[in-house]
Task: inverse folding
């Protein structure tokens, strides 16, 4: 079964388009997050999107918008709480994740609405990507991509050396908040494809490959994006052919690529 | 023509958790100065430098950079800074080349990275510190001395008028230390760069700097003419051993 056949289905066209946007953004912002030792923020934000999805179901608005809003709100709260616990930054992640998940559980139980739509947000779904999702993802993706290109040097600098970035005249506090917000939007977009439970993996595994293969920051970024794109395109293809969960397939492919890279480097290291 | 006042402090107080570190400190750094701040561990040398740059806020007192109150100072392109342990404390696995690290010091607002002038500034700075050939090497692969030069190039890329360095030679070998201070002296002499350096290396401080600032007992005393200073007496007062440089 060829790719052209699969792409003759409109829902698969949308899935591939959304997947490519997601892969690019998750791999890019994931690298910044990994380098800032904030790998777990993706996990926290993705769990927070559940509260937005549940709120959408509870109050009757489109859950995907709720997911984006909840991720952005969670990102702002994380930054706010971090100021109260400067030496225990991870506390803010735990507080936000548990509170938002609790909120989601309460709303779902009140509505008694554990349905297919919620299931699609938990595990990702190919057929769940609606035309309006692609439009939202395209627009949000452009904002995230444009911001990343425009603030590339700033994001690199605050990831490498925050104090020096401040002295170079960069508005470090605002940049931290903006980068976290961009990450939140990316997480919310990725939830549609890989699901809440696996978003964090898409933001960590490709950057891990990039860190192993790249000799420069731009090189690491290129390998990270290439890994994510390959895993998403091949993962979507395989999940269609074999009727597999797309999120799980994509993440397993990422893990497979990482294990090959680590294996080859390990063997090379042993031989040296 | 009168020299420009690069930095000025008046009546500055600072304490860590209630323990006074600096009490009523006043000092001036003039354009073209090469001031070495020396003193025992914990005397407040690094604190003094961070206060001058606004990285710490004083409890009392006022600070100016280039004649402007620090709170409203925005001309950070005029100021270069090499933080303490910059070369030793960073993550050596960070995937960045020397060129990328140096470029991060040249900041001219949004979209800076995509301007051609950045590349020119980076290679000018690398040439200046003598490591142009290392531009495409990964920063984590360099020796301690080479890394420190790369970080110096980052601070110099924007062509600042004043350079502030916090213990820049900690953790690097003796010959690299001497070479580093020789480079600072050259930058001061040939480029007219104002330099303020916190250091434990009293021998290099006395042989390269124009002024010595002794930080001790919550105060600072600036020796304007170091030729009149008894180096051994200063070392003894501050608890240094002059043999330590060997």
Result:
């Amino acid at each position: 079964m060829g790719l052209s056949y699969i792409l003759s289905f409109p829902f698969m066209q949308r899935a591939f388009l959304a997947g490519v946007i997601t892969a690019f953004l998750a791999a890019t912002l994931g690298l910044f997050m990994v380098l800032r030792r904030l790998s777990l923020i993706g996990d926290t934000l993705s769990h927070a999107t559940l509260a937005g999805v549940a709120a959408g179901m509870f109050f009757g608005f489109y859950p995907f918008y709720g997911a984006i809003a909840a991720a952005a709100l969670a990102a702002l709260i994380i930054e706010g709480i971090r100021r109260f616990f400067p030496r225990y930054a991870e506390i803010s992640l735990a507080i936000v994740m548990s509170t938002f998940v609790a909120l989601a559980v309460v709303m779902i139980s009140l509505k008694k609405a554990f349905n297919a739509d919620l299931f699609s947000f938990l595990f990702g779904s190919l057929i769940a990507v609606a035309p309006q999702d692609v439009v939202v993802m395209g627009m949000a993706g452009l904002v995230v991509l444009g911001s990343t290109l425009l603030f590339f040097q700033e994001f690199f600098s605050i990831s490498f050396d925050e104090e020096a970035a401040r002295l170079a005249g960069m508005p470090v506090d605002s940049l931290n908040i903006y980068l976290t917000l961009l990450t939140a939007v990316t997480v919310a977009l990725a939830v549609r494809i890989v699901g809440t439970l696996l978003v964090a993996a898409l933001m960590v595994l490709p950057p891990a490959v990039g860190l192993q293969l790249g000799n420069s920051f731009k090189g690491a970024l290129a390998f990270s994006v290439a890994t994510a794109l390959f895993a998403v395109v091949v993962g979507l293809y395989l999940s269609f052919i074999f009727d597999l969960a797309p999120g799980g397939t994509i993440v397993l492919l990422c893990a497979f690529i990482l294990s090959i890279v680590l294996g080859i480097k390990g063997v090379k290291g042993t031989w040296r | 023509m009168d020299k420009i006042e690069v930095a000025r402090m008046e009546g500055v107080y600072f304490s860590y958790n209630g323990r006074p570190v600096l009490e009523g400190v006043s000092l001036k750094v003039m354009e073209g100065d090469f001031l070495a701040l020396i003193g025992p561990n914990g005397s407040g040398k690094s604190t003094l430098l961070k206060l001058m740059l606004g990285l710490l806020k004083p409890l009392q007192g006022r600070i100016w950079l280039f004649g402007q109150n620090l709170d409203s100072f925005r001309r950070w392109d005029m100021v270069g800074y090499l933080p303490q342990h910059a070369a030793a404390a960073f993550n050596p696995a960070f995937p960045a080349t020397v060129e990328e690290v140096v470029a991060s010091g040249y900041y001219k607002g949004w979209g800076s990275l995509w301007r051609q002038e950045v590349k020119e500034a980076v290679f000018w700075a690398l040439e200046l510190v003598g490591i142009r050939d290392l531009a495409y090497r990964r920063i984590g692969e360099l020796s301690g001395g080479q890394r420190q030069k790369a970080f110096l190039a980052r601070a110099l890329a924007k062509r600042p008028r004043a350079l502030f360095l916090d213990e820049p030679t900690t953790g690097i070998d003796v010959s690299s230390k001497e070479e580093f201070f020789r480079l600072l002296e050259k930058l001061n002499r040939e480029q007219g760069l104002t330099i303020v350096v916190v250091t434990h290396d009293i021998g290099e401080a006395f042989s390269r700097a124009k002024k010595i600032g002794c930080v001790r007992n919550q105060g600072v005393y600036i020796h304007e003419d170091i030729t009149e200073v008894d180096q051994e007496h200063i070392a003894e007062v501050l608890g240094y051993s002059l043999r330590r440089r060997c």
In short: Chain A has a mean pLDDT of 86. The interface with chain B takes residues 35, 149-154, 156-157, 160-161, 163-170, 210-211, 214-220 of chain A (CB under 8 Å). The longest helix of chain A spans residues 10-35. Residues 3-271 of chain A form a domain with the ABC transporter involved in vitamin B12 uptake, BtuC fold (CATH 1.10.3470.10).
